[in-house]
Structure formats: structure tokens, C-alpha cells
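Dear Dr. L.,

I hope this message finds you well. Following up on our conversation about the binding site, I have prepared a predicted three-dimensional model of the protein together with phosphoenolpyruvate. For your records, I am including the exact sequence and ligand specification that went into the calculation, followed by the C-alpha cells. Please feel free to forward this to your student if that is useful.
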Amino acid sequence: MRRPLVAGNWKMNGSCEQNAALVDGLTSGDRGQQAEMAVFPPSVYVANVAEMLADSGIAWGLQNCAEQEKGAFTGEASAVMAKDLGCKYVLVGHSERRTLFGETDEVVATKVQRLVEQGIVPVLCVGETLEEREAGTTIERVGAQVKAVLDQFDSAGEIVIAYEPVWAIGTGLTATPEQAQEVHAAIRDMLVGYSADLAAKTRILYGGSVNAGTAAELFAKEDIDGGLVGGASLKAEEFLKISRAAG
Ligand code: PEP
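The resulting structure of the complex is given below.
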């Protein structure tokens, strides 16, 4: 039985004051019985948010990490530092990292390795562009992104995969539950090729303009084990509703 995960990617939003209000709303509200909740604040705020979340049962993590362990890499933060901050999860390969910062499948695979070495669970983001969907190459593209990572991954370990169609991120367009389920099932099938146990235990999240109105139908699908939520995770009440939609 996979415990659903509802993860909030705050992207480059927030302030000390806004974060405190958001965390207060999340910790004092009803998250539902089933889902695990995690938040991904901008890295400069993670230590402060972690302090506020202590003993809340809500996990936290970075939105990205460096390929390198330490040294002269101005502006970067490493997996070792994420571990030091008590991060349980770290996002890797978000489409904004891939498109705006040129991260290739190989770079993403290296970051996953760095995180695994630290005992942190990577949340691997994959997804096709609109052009790829229209060309009928969605499964091929997503499959290649997953393969680049899993070929170097010990299937006894833990990973979370977030399927996020690029055309649905921050656009207000959500994949239909059927469109999402088709890709999630294909990812699950791929995982079976590595290990039946890995396929059974790996949570595959859907991301792309999820909101309180669309979450329940998406999460009801067999292979959708929760969501990675951007915009709607910045409003405590809405994010709580999304969490409750997971059970
Ligand atoms: C995301 O940032 O991963 C995301 C899915 O954003 P949004 O929910 O705003 O589309």
C-alpha cells in the first residue's frame, strides 16, 4: 500500500512573514488522514521553515541540489547540505530546471545519485512538452527521462517520480485524469522492468495546475499516488483541501 504524498513546490515565492503564515495555516489545519505532506521552500528559507515545521509531521526539502559535493560552486547547495538541514526529499529535474537552466537527463541522474548517497529521497520530475505530446512521443520522452535515472539507481532504494506535463505547469491546464493515468501506468510498467518491488512501492505523483477542484479525480486513479503542487500550495486552505482529497 503506497501512502499518498502531497508535495508543495513554492518555487521562488514567499518571505519570512508569508512563510510563517503559510506554515501556521498548514500545521493548524486539517490535512486529512491518509496523505503525507511535504513542502519545498526556496533554499534560503528552508532552515527557518524546518524549525517551524519541527514535530508537525510535515516534511521539507530543497527544490534542487548541486551535482557536486562541495567547493567553489557559487550559488549552489549540495545534497550533503540538504541532509544537514534534515531534508527528507529533494526535487530533481523540475521542468523549470531543465528548460531555464539547461539540465540534461544525465545531470539529473547525477543529482539523484548525490541525494541517494545522503539517504535523501529524490523526487524526480519528468514530463513532455506540448510539441512532444502533439507529436505522439509523450511515453517515449518520459520513458527516456526515467530510464536515464533508473539505469543508475539501486532498486532497493526509494525514489518518488512526479509526472508533470510541461504544458500543464503553471498554465491552468491540467491533464485529464485519463491522460495522467495513461502516463503513470506506463511509468509503473517501466519500473517493473527494474524490479517488481520498486514498481509496487514507488509513488508516482501528478503535477501540473492541480487545485482543490481537480485533485480528487486525479488522485482516484490507480497509479496516481498524490500530487506535486505549485501555485495552489501557496494557499494553506487550498493545499489542505488537496491533501484531504488524497484521503
Ligand atoms: C510545479 O511547480 O511543479 C507545478 C506543478 O506547478 P503548478 O501546480 O503551479 O502548475
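In brief: Residues 9, 11, 164, 169-170, 207-210, 228-232 surround phosphoenolpyruvate (CB under 6 Å).

With kind regards,
A. P.
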